[in-house]
Amino acid sequence: DPNIFTPIAPKNRYKDTNGDGVIQAGEMTADNEYTIEERADFWYRDVKGKYQISPRIGFGYPISDRGSIHVSFGQFLQMPLMDKLYKNPLYQMGTGTGLQGEMGNADLKPERTNQYEIGLQQQVSNDIKLQLDIFYRDIRNLQSGDKIIETYQQGTMYSIYSNNDYAEIKGITISLEKRYSNYFSAFVDYTYQVAEGVSVDRNAAYNAINNNMTPEKQLIPLGHDQRHTLNVTTNIGVPGNWNVGIIAKWSTGMPYTIGNLELVRLTQIANTGVKPAKTNVDIRFDKTLNFAGIHFNLYLRVSNLFDTMNEYNVFDDTGRATYTTLENKYSETQASKMINGLREYLIQPTNFSHPRRVVAGVQFDL
Question: The dihedral of CA 92, 96, 97, 99: what is its sign?
């Protein structure tokens, strides 16, 4: 009986004048109803404050004159999102049957992350360093809309957020750094990471229940589960004269949920598909000049140097942004009502990375 303004249960609407614990028919009169102010005295309850000590511990130990190991542990606290605390704060809901919406929960616990890391640093030469880090994070008390409350009105339900979701992230990072020498510096790092949880987002459980599906009960890839990432940064030049900088990145695709022609989920398990890998190269050239006491910097910046069409958003039926089997379902006669053709309508430019972009300019100091 969540709505203080229009309660359904007789005990929440009418006063028990004879104190027998049962609202009799003679007590169900308009002049015996609680006012909203009277109802508020017993309707709400105060929540307790949430506290946590968040230690961060780390130490390093040299294993040679060129290498060391380090270990760290940290516990981190994050407040729940405000809309999960106070969504629909008056608990107003529809009058129909079935699931009638989500309600916030002011008694949610904060998210708690335990983070562990162990690493090794090793000097390879006078200007090259190798580093290896292994990390693990477990995230608890994540919000989930899976707590279903039956109302006094039979067949009518609503959900409130709980702290039932869990996620874990684990992986390894290897990096190689060359400090500037002989006109050249570079940094290369590779990360293998697995990010899994019991739901793809905070509303996944509610959406599943609302569509007569069973919420996930196993670890599945999270939306940011990017297994492989490789970054390369290089700089070539003479300080104070000229410089060429290149940033290159390659990564595997993010997960997506496989669907059919109507873009309806085919399985109970979300995020079983993987989007295509992504590649990007940016380059910048700088040239410094001094003329008549004025310091000039000429620059040229090119982002997405090779004009790569990275696919960020894909069709659920193909896992690609470049085509979909929906093209076979609709005829060009139907598509003639659309602006441009059917393919132009389906293949959206917002599903791809931006095209090559070139910017040239000059900066100067008086």
Answer: negative
Looking at the fold, whether 252 and 331 belong to one and the same domain comes out as yes
**Owner of token pair 């100091």:** 365
Q: What burial class does residue 264 get, using C-beta atoms within 10 Å of its C-beta: 0-12 exposed, 13-18 middle, 19+ buried?
A: exposed
Burial class (CB in 10 A: 0-12, 13-18, 19+), 254: buried
Residues 278 and 257 in one domain: yes
The residues near 71 (Cβ < 8 Å, ≥ 6 apart) are 58, 59, 60, 117, 118, 119
Q: Please tell me the pTM assigned to this model.
A: 0.80
How far apart (Å, rounded) are the C-alpha atoms in residues 350 and 332? 23
Beta bridge partners, 280, equal 249
| Under 8 Å between Cβ of 122 and 130 | yes
Find, among 312, 301, 242, the residue nearest to 276 by Cα.
312
Say how far apart CA 246 and CA 54 lie, in whole Å: 39
CA angle 202, 203, 204 (to 5 degrees): 95
CA distance 25 to 143: 42
pLDDT tens column, 31-60: 888 888 888 888 888 888 888 889 999 999
CB–CB of 82/52 below 8 Å? no
SS3 316: coil
Judged by DSSP in three states, 208 sits in helix
Would you say residue 268 lies in a domain?
yes
- Read off φ and ψ for residue 207, nearest 5 degrees: -60, -40
Both 145 and 288 in a single domain? no
| pLDDT at residue 338, rounded to an integer | 56
Helix (H/G/I), strand (E/B), else coil: 350? helix
Six token digits for residue 160:
């409130």
Q: Up-side HSE of residue 298: CA atoms within 13 Å toward CB? A: 7
